[in-house]
Amino acid sequence: MSKEHCFYCFDALVAYFEARPVVAPDFENSEYPLFVTWSTSEGRDLVLRGCIGNFKAMPLYSGLQEYALTSAFKDGRFPPIALKEIPSLVCNVSLLINFEDGDDYLDWEIGVHGIWIEFRDGKGRKRTATYLPEVPKEQGWTKLKTIDSLLRKGGFQGSINEDVRQGIILTRYQSRKAQSTYDEYIQSCE
């Protein structure tokens, strides 16, 4: 895992706006589940602009290119990233590893594990939601607050109680993560 993965995501985004092909990367084309996260740098803070990924292992070349664009333009929580925002962007790539079934909804460690939950909504429909390992720690959340937030993120609209939480099927995972600013990307191109 290296900044090269992030540089490739930046190149995919810039190539999209310039209507040109993406430059082929030098890293291995191994298969991983992955997430691409875009944020804007506002002083010392990063403000989320898009984060989408896939739990199915996919080749890094096609996976990173696809999710660099998907997270930039199709994260329904945010307007699509505009060309003028690119110089302020920070890219994070997370390659997901070490998937394990949790014994219950509390069987994970803040700052170590990402969690993926499966649950039934009030109408009995199966729903899922995930947070990458860094999210609960960055937000200062407890395990309970994280689980309740994930239920809401996944579309649960009813009252959250212990019975609802006990019905969760939890998978924990870890990630290898790299981060790059746009300026670092530009330096890598020179």
Automatic annotation (TrEMBL):
Stretches that traverse the bilayer: none
Top-level taxon: Eukaryota
Positions of the AMMECR1 domain: 1-189
Family matches, as SUPFAM superfamilies: AMMECR1-like (SSF143447)
Pfam families given in the database record: AMMECR1
InterPro entries per record: AMMECR1, AMMECR1_dom_sf, AMMECR1_domain, AMMECR1_N
PANTHER family: AMME SYNDROME CANDIDATE GENE 1 PROTEIN, AMMECR1 HOMOLOG
NCBIfam families linked to this entry: TIGR00296 family protein (TIGR00296)
Entry protein name: AMME chromosomal region protein 1-like
Lineage of source species: Eukaryota, Fungi, Fungi incertae sedis, Mucoromycota, Mortierellomycotina
Gene coding for it: AMMECR1L
